[in-house]
Every structure is written in structure tokens, then in C-alpha cells.
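Reopening this one. Same input as before:
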Amino acid sequence: MGKLTYHNNSADLQLDSIRQVYSITKAFTSVAIARLVEEGKLYYKQQVCTWIKEFDTDYHRDITLWHLLTHTSGLMPDPGCLQEPYPFPWYGWWVHEKRDKSDQWSASEWIKLILGGRMAARPGEQWNYCTAGYAILGEVIARVSGMSYEQYIREYITEPLGMEHTFMDVPKQLHSKVCYVNPWEENGLKESAEHTEVRADVGNTAVDEMPPAAGNGLFSTLHDLWKFGQCLLDGGTFNGHTLLGRRTVENMVSNQLSGVPSKCWGITIRTIKCPWAGA
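Same output, byte for byte:
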């Protein structure tokens, strides 16, 4: 099966090894939003500005939760998506002095950073893959639920499904089971442990206002991901626990983007305008 890490003396990768699952995190975020919709706390066509005031501008006011979920918000997409020659990730600032715990970003600052500059398109006009939009969804989940994004995912999704090895921050005692393939991933794992230790010192209060890693932050195992996937395949119920209603799941897996064009990564798809565009 290969090695657990890139080091020459690495142990072997195992079936129960933990791995950062990156954009699979978006599926968990989508389920969390769907739960809040079922509870009547949100609705898909709701404007984001009703929860996040920074969106209340002429550029961003029409962006809805549905736009963020379907990558049609018009916000600038992931670096390189539009084949720009010198891509700079929206989260690139965090490698600078703001990582000092005495000088944390406020939620308003990182949200404005995401919204800064021009729009890639009008809301609903194009499909452009946008992880930053999922950070915004994570912030909405936190504001609506009154708990952190991480806590919501843990209490309402991973724990009820028995996903015992799925984390945003992997406990230090399990680091020997984590697969990482380069120094960047290894350093991120160490920094995650440091962040967890600081939070433990101050209780459950967040020590900073980093964007929720709602688009790419989860770590999990193959078996845990099977539980999550099987729950959705079975209409929202797994091992006696109902995560979502069947009709909600059916809506989630239906085609939401018929007719929406895309130009991401040099592949142009020209189709008729989606009737939901601008909704």
C-alpha cells in the first residue's frame, strides 16, 4: 500500500491510517447547511448578507447560500482556476506576522480579504471552483448555531455517525497514524497540534479568528468516510441515526447546475443559462 509519510524510514500506510481529506470537507459543510435548512434556521436562496454584513455591498448583496454551495457565487475562484500566470491564494496572508497569537485577524478582516478585489462573475453566471466560499459557509454555520464550525461538525455529524477518527485538528497522540506526503503537510500537522494545545489552555473559547477550514480541513480514515457516504446513500440514516431527511438528500444529489457555463482550468463548457442564475 506504500508508505505512511515521505520520510525514508516511514512506516507503511495502513487501512486505518488518517489522512487529510481536503475538499471532501465540503460535503460535510453542505450537510451541515442542509441540517440547518431542515430546522428552518436557513434557506438556500437566503442572501449571505443577512448573516454577514460585509456582503451588504453592490457587488456581493445578491450572493446566496445556494451560490456558495454550488460554486456560482462569482467570488474569485481557487488559485490557478482561471489560469492566471501568478496565482496568489486568498489565505496566503496567514504565513505572515498575523500568525502571532498576540495579533490575530478578526472575522471581519478575513471576510473582507475574501471579498477584496473584483468579482470573477455575477452571482449565478458561471461555475468557478471556490474554496473561499466554503470558508464563508463555515462562518454562517458558526453564527447560526452559536458554536464553532468544528464543534458543529463534531456534535451533529461525526460523533453521531461513530466517526471516531475524523478531526479538524488531529490529537497529538494519533500523529503517528497520520499520512503526509511532503514537508508542507507535515508542518501543517504540527501547527494544528500547537493550535489545539493553546485552545486547551483557554478552554473552549477560540484563540483566534482564523477562517473555518470548511472547504479543506478535515482529517479522516477510509472506514470513517464509508460511514458518512453510506449514510447519504441510505437516504440520510446510518446505524439508527438520522442525519438528514430522505428528500433533503435527494435534493442534494440532484443536478443543481444544468446550463451553468464554466471556464475553469482552461476547459470551456458553453451551455444555456441556468434558470436559477441570479436567484
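So the earlier flakiness isn't reproducible anymore. For the record, Residues 93-99, 200-207, 274-279 have pLDDT under 50 and may be disordered.
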